[in-house]
Specification:
Length: about 300
């Protein structure tokens, strides 16, 4: 296991030898990781690796069987609940949002940590909700109940609820669910804007091509950290290929052509398919040559230069 984060640098969230069981099933086995402040860390790995479980443990949503989680250098359990809710915002996977609530009301739930008990929303609350709904392009249906929205529209409202908290640390589990490629590109631009403002973003993604746009990848397999490092590091790419059993290949895309954000190279994940080598042995090969991948199949953000 390789970890590239500077332990002495600013850390937003840290897991120290964290172990978690779900029922009788051990899911995380002594996970240790430090997530840097003001950057986007994406947690990736095969199905059943423990990605969502780790994110929930970092959010304080699951009991630990061992180890500890630290938030900004302080044990998570030592934080008062309201202070923690203002510091860490959460977007879960397939979350119920309250079908009878309007999009405005759902986004306003993000302001609860800032409001007194049974208190009415303040002008600051209303400004925060409007800004969040506009950022996620959900403003036009603010008066519509969630039950009348599509899956993608609903996801954008839930994302607005997350943003309305105005927390310095945002945790998102599968935030791209139900979003079409243009809105995935919008989400990517939004995340980049958040980190430029100094906010910390931690996500779980299955979309590996989008994950490669992150600052850091935290690669899990079988409940253990296999690698942590910059998303553009060849060592990270090799680790990614290994945890997926060499069924994928990470290849450069348009290397040397700088994008809108000044990044000099792009990377794409290609699936491999079995081929028969001489002698009848089975080998694996990428389905496309490096640099020849049609990126609109996986990365609308790259194709439109909006990433």
């Amino acid at each position: 296991m390789h970890t590239a984060v500077d332990a002495n640098g600013p850390v937003a969230l840290a897991a120290q030898a964290v172990s978690v069981r779900l029922g009788r099933h051990p899911v995380l086995h002594g996970v240790t990781a430090a997530l840097p402040r003001g950057r986007w860390t994406c947690i990736v790995g095969p199905n059943g690796a423990g990605k969502s479980t780790l994110l929930k443990a970092l959010a304080g949503l699951l009991p630990l069987q061992g180890g500890r989680v630290e938030l900004l250098g302080r044990a998570l359990q030592d934080w008062p609940r309201r202070a923690r809710a203002r510091t860490v915002a959460w977007l879960g996977q397939a979350e119920p949002g309250g079908d009878d609530l309007t999009a405005w009301d759902v986004a306003m739930l993000g302001r609860l940590p800032h409001q007194p008990w049974l208190g009415a929303p303040s002008p600051a609350d209303r400004r925060a909700v409007e800004e969040a709904l506009r950022l996620t392009q959900a403003w036009d249906w603010r008066a519509r109940p969630l039950a009348q929205l599509s899956g993608g529209q609903r996801q954008r409202v839930l994302l607005a609820r997350l943003l309305a908290v105005q927390a310095p640390i945002l945790l998102m589990d599968e935030p791209l669910a139900h979003l079409d490629p243009p809105h995935q590109a919008d989400w990517l631009a939004l995340v980049r804007g958040l980190t430029r403002q100094g906010q910390t973003v931690v996500t779980v993604l299955h979309e590996l091509n989008m994950a490669l746009h992150a600052d850091e990848l935290l690669i899990l397999d079988a409940g253990r950290v296999r690698h942590q490092g910059p998303a553009d590091d060849p060592a990270t790419h090799r680790a990614l290929e290994q945890v997926f059993g060499q069924h994928i290949a990470v290849r450069p895309l348009d290397a040397g052509a700088a994008g809108a954000d000044g990044v000099s190279a792009r990377w794409v994940v290609l699936p491999k398919e079995p081929v028969f080598a001489e002698g009848g042995e089975v080998a694996s090969a990428p389905r496309a040559r490096p640099g020849a991948f049609i990126c609109e199949e996986v990365c609308h953000a790259h194709r439109t230069r909006s990433c």
